[in-house]
Write a structure and sequence with these properties.
With 186 residues, the protein is mostly helical. It has a domain of 125 residues: Orthogonal Bundle (Tetracycline Repressor, domain 2). Helix 1 packs across helix 4 and helix 2 crosses helix 3.
């Protein structure tokens, strides 16, 4: 299947925003990398902010879906184990977008999509910051979620991810399950 110009622009923009940051990436740079003109970029996306929002949209939708399954429901051991698999698959599928909204949303850039991603991160934190959880459990959640996201993003950026990805997936699921649903808990 042939890649459309729009799809190519999204792929290149994701790579450029990940590598150089939102502030460090110009529409001209994206145009040059795709072999098109800046006018063509603007034809498909009215502004760099609109392009960034389009780049992050799939990750936002995916995490919103995960959150819908978590919010307002008891977080049993089985639910934690299912969440771990969902979250690891989310991270693996969207690690560049996660890098952008975790590492760049507080960079002082005034892009509306960062308000959305910050709100999503806050919703995730709220799920795991319930009064019924001990301080130890809250720390486990924070380390598991932030640590796995950081490790994947940084490893990907420096091309240090263990290959193949199924090996990484299995290892992440094991470690996160040990943190979030340890055998001695419950």
């Amino acid at each position: 299947m042939a890649t459309t110009t729009r799809e190519q622009l999204l792929r290149v923009a994701l790579d450029e925003f990940t590598r150089a940051g939102y502030a460090g990436t110009s529409l001209q740079r994206i145009a040059d990398a795709t072999g098109t003109s800046k006018a063509s970029v603007l034809y498909h996306f009215a502004s760099k902010e609109v392009l960034l929002a389009a780049v992050l949209e799939p990750a936002c939708l995916a995490i919103e879906e995960i959150l819908r399954g978590l919010e307002g429901r008891p977080f049993t051991r089985e639910r934690r184990e299912a969440f771990v698999v969902e979250f690891v698959d989310f991270l693996l599928a969207h690690r560049q977008a996660v890098h952008i909204f975790v590492n760049q949303s507080n960079s002082g850039v005034d892009a509306p999509v960062f308000e959305r991603t910050d709100a999503l991160v806050a919703r995730i934190a709220d799920v795991f910051d319930r009064e019924e959880y001990s301080v130890e459990t809250r720390i486990r959640f924070g380390i598991a979620l932030a640590g796995s996201a950081y490790m994947l993003v940084q490893g990907d950026m420096h091309e240090q991810l263990p290959q193949p990805l199924p090996t990484m997936r299995a290892a992440l699921i094991t470690v996160m399950t040990e943190l979030l649903a340890p055998v001695d808990q419950e």
